[in-house]
Amino acid sequence: MKGLYIHIPFCVKKCEYCDFVSFSGMDARHDAYIDMLIREMEAYRGENIDTVFIGGGTPTALSSKRLTRLLAAVRKIFPIARETEFTVEVNPGTATEDKISALLSGGVDRVSVGVQSFNDAELKAIGRIHDARTAYTTVIRLKAAGFNNISIDLMASLPYQTIESFNATLDTALSLPITHISVYSLIIEDGTPIQKKYQSGIYKMPDEDTDRQLYRLTGELLSSRGFNRYEISNYARAGFESRHNLKYWNCDEYIGVGLAAHSYINGVRYYNTSDMTDYLSGKYRAGEEILSDTDKRGEFMILGLRKIEGISEAVFGRRFGMDIESVYGDIILKYANLGVLEKADGFVRLTERGLDVANTVMSEFV
Ligand code: SF4
Q1: Which CATH class is domain 292-366?
Q2: The pTM is what?
Q3: Is the model's pLDDT at 366 over the cut of 90?
Q4: Closest residue CA from atom 7 of ligand 1
């Protein structure tokens, strides 16, 4: 079974930190874009999928009528079983009642709400289109409408953020009827408006120590309130881990449709164009890469180490027909001696200390 990712590259307004492939002011192209998505999905008719994730961009920047059309097309092209995890990202600034109804009647059973913070000054600094109250009430309205699987995204290391304000955001999050929380640190990407504000000193980056402190605080608070960390940045109540995202971390197959989407099928990674004009004219495929066995093993290690449970030696053996020790024994030993990797219960995983230096460890497996 594969996952299906659908990219909606439209937003009401670009956030200050965003370097995703998404555009504002393109409403006139929404219909043509959905036409093209449907055409692209038709090429995969017959595939069995058990997770769907519509992300962006802002899927809820589409009108309720367009959302209904898109969701109906997905269900028509792919056999969607009742157990399929069907997620749509929701921006609180666009979550009108008619769109929430369209998601529910279109078979969506999981929503991922881009909250980022429950502090208005922080939200304003990063250019979000909603305030904290709207984010809060959006989650309440989604629950009241019938969604029982609600994830929220939060961000750490924001301008103006303090340990106290971050703590308050986490407390507010925990008062909501949610099942899953993702917490990512703000990354200052080149060419984004927020980068200029940092460079000119208008905003200050929290130092690395504060960032690590926020990270630890998140882990401690969330786990004390029943959310298990199952991936470096993701926490879930038992049984509510994101099955779609686990496909990425397990290097399972997925189909990606839409602007700049990737697919991974049968050992080949396919890349879609990021050029809207090309995409709408049907030239969606921009390239492909056949992964060598070495590449596949390396990716399996890098992505698998993101999971807190780590990498199953048995799964590695079954997938690659080799013992993990025979391929990576030296690297595992080196980092185990440094106390950042451990091999236990049939798994290789980062230790608590290792999570702080995850990128360094992972780079060894490239
Ligand atoms: S809503 Fe998401 S995709 Fe859109 S501009 Fe903001 S961060 Fe980027």
Answers
A1: mainly alpha
A2: 0.97
A3: no
A4: 18
